Each structure stands twice: as structure tokens, then as C-alpha cells.
Amino acid sequence: MTGTSRAEILRAIRNEYLHDEGYYVEHVAQLGYTSVDIRNLTDYVPFHLKNVTDIQVVTALTLCVGLVHLLMGLLRIEFLTSYLSDQLISGFSTGASVHVIIVQLDKIFQHFFDVMSKIAETNIVTFTLSVGAFIFLFIGKDCINPYVRKRLPVPLPFELILVIVATTLSYLFDFERKHQMNVVGIVPVGFPTAELPRLQLIPYVYKDAFEIAFVIVAVHLSMCKVFSRRHNYDTDNNQELYAIALTGVISSCFLTYPVSSALGRSMLIEESGGKTQVCLVFSNSFAITAF
What we know:
The protein has 291 residues and is mainly alpha-helical. The chain has a domain at 1-52. 67% of the residues lie in helices and 0% in strands. α5 (124-151) packs antiparallel against α6 (158-173). One of its GO terms (biological process) is transmembrane transport.
């Protein structure tokens, strides 16, 4: 969900809240209540969307997206995949790669539109580490791993090695305090308590849910076609719709964003030797054990 859509949803909710609260105060004033009574009564305004938080909007959106995917599965909308040609998928993958590069540049310079005019304000340590990370991944994945693949069944996980090394250096040299670098900080452990999304928010998020649902379907089924072509197996597109639908509906109870295929993570798993969903059993088991 983009920041714009989130802001529009919250603005619509607040406008309705103010409208209902104003109507309620005007109504009780006509009944002869004093100003003190009215102030006390506004604490009990019978409005069902009072104190809405951002995460509640997100969980309602996730639920609504899952329901849209379920509806698409029931209506067998998978016929749309016939329009996803190889050229379209290749262009989509290239665009995603360009997007990843632009996002990384934004993180390095902390600016997007005026990078050149703000070079003097670049954090030298952040820039040096970022360039070093690019070089490390390039040498590891494009120069070393081709030789490793000939001798080992699984390539070396240079991405994981980079994360471990960078985290260790950040801890030892205190990058956050000494060099004013942005770090992840303390990662909370455990899983959030399950709670039902606020169903009253669905009328405010269903429009965005339809848009996001179609984008998710395009991304997910495109990735399915890419990997099925690489590894010579068939996929049931309608089954994929049911899978992401149930995943979205269930995960909405655990404070999550709408579910989709992660382009970078899927490519990383595929490059690490993963070919089926069994690899996710091990990665998820590791995540559960760690947190």
C-alpha cells in the first residue's frame, strides 16, 4: 500500500468521524444539554471508527486483498495469464531490476531527485560500505560462484555472508553513534498476537484492494511462469490464486501487509539451489527458531 493511498484512506475515515461527532453534538445540544454535558457525552460518541491506527488499515487491506484473490479463484480469472507473454515477463523483470537499483541509490545518498546537488552531504562511511557491498556481491556471485557450482551442489550464500559481516562491523565500530549511520537496531522477538482485522474499514480500502490484488496476481503468476520454464514443470494458476488468497486472509490476523511474491528473494532462493517449496520449510523453521 502506498503512502498516498494510506493517507487518503485515513483522511476519509477522519472526515467521517468528524461528521458523525459533529452531528451527535448538534443533536444532543438540541435536546437541551449544557456545554459541560456535551463535553462529557462526546467521550461516548457511538462511532465505530474512532482511534483508527495505520496498522489496522493495513490489516483490513490485507484481508480485503485476500478476499479479492479468493473471488478471482472462484471466477477462474487465471485465463488472464494467457496474455502474459515471454516478452512481457522479460520486460517486467528488467523493470523490477531497474527499480531495485534506484532504491539502492536512494538508500546510499538519502536523496532521490537531487542526488548530484547533495553529493557533498553524502555520508562517506555509508557510501564506502555500499560500494564495497556491490563489489563483494559482484565478485562473489559472478566470478567465484561459477567455479564453486562445478564442485559443490549449492553455491556459496554471499548475500548471507555480507549481512553477517556488515552486522558484525556495525556492532564492533558503533556505526550508528560514531558515523551517524541508520541501522536496524533492536529487532523484536516473538510473533504478534492474532487478532481479527476491523471489518468496519473494508468500505474504505476495497478500491485499493482491487488494484493491489491485480498487481499481485500479475507479479506472482509471472514469477511462476519464469521458474516453471527454467525448471521444466507445470503450475496450476487457479491453485496459485487460492494459495495467495488463503495466505492473505490468514496472515491478516497477524498484522501483515498484503502477500505477494518477492522478486529478489525468489531469485535468491533459486540461485541458492531451491527448486520447490520444500526449501521454504527450512528457511521458515530457521526464522521461527531465531525469533
